[in-house]
Amino acid sequence: MDFNFTEEQQMLRDSIGKYLEKNYDFDTRQKLVRSEAPWSQEAWQQFADFGLLALPFSEEQGGLGGSISDCVAFAELFGKHLVIEPYTSAVMLSAPALAASANPVAQDWFAKVIGGEAVVAFAFEEGHSTPSPAHVAMPAVADGADYALSGEKRLVVAGAEAHALVVAARSQDRAPALFLVEAGAAGLQPRAYRTIDGRSAADIRFDQVKAIALDLPAKALDDIIARAVIVQCAEAVGAMGALCTITAEYAMTRKQFGVPIATFQAVAHRLADMKIAYSKARASLLYTTALAQGGAATPRDIAILKAQTGKLGRAIGEAAIQTHGGVGTTDELNVSHYHKRLIACDAMFGDHAYHFRKIGEG
Predict the structure, then answer these.
(1) Tell me: the pLDDT tens digits for 47-93?
(2) pTM score > 0.85 for this model?
(3) Using an 8 Å Cβ cutoff, are 124 and 153 in contact?
(4) Which of 6, 64, 169, 218 has the fewest Cβ atoms surrounding its Cβ within 10 A?
(5) What is the pLDDT of residues 269-285, one digit of tens each?
(6) CA distance 225 to 89
(7) Calpha distance 103→97 (Å, rounded)
């Protein structure tokens, strides 16, 4: 297997990296998080102009025919810059469900998403840990040609601002399925807030909300989540790499007793452990991406990747804070924000403890 990015992927990384370095530095990002805007519309439009919204989809679907490795190539940069735009939710989770549906309404929404005209959020988590489709409990009751949804979804990224929702629920045959709900539908009650890592999210109550069944194949939801988890892990790896660099630079410049703290054996060992953890996480990411690229990734492979990045990411974040001392926990320093992003990435779709248990049971 070739684990190097192609020339085209490297060019894409360079273009996006230059844009983010210039327009998405930490101070700019913090001003955005503290504002009333859920994310940067300018950045979202730029992502559309780069082709990122259409990249993961085939040319027959109206996309650019990109691959999972193309998405991983730039997702690392999203993690490095702590991007808060809802790329994974809208493009890696909702859009594939819309694209796979034969329903004309879903196809119209799909075209709007990849064209940058609309954001469709993915409503999956139900607040009692929903790591996989098997844990989805919200009922979908047939109501004529459509369905009615009742219950609550938690931590819906972009849920309050989205133009529509793709909702995971259980149909009458008890199989988990996906449904389309348009924003403003009767009975829809979102409560917006910021997540610990700065993203806009919402808890949403559904009270007999009218929904359209997307009628996807049984395994489609698992496959969609698996690809999204790979991209989410790429963001986490990007954040890990940034923390390693920031912490090493700090240790070389911060002095105690007249010498850089990086010369202290305990600190030097901690920096080495961080580097090893990052290398292990990135190796797992690239290996799993290569498997997925070739259609050979299994649920066990995805679980291993999720478990490794979750555990190693938390270890790197904690080591970075310990090296920086008390200032590492403050809101003014980017270290704490990287740690929060890693915690958030670990929690979504099952934390590392859940996936390690899943591996053991397999």
Answers:
(1) 999 999 999 999 999 999 999 999 999 999 999 999 999 999 999 99
(2) yes
(3) yes
(4) 218
(5) 999 999 999 999 999 99
(6) 10
(7) 11
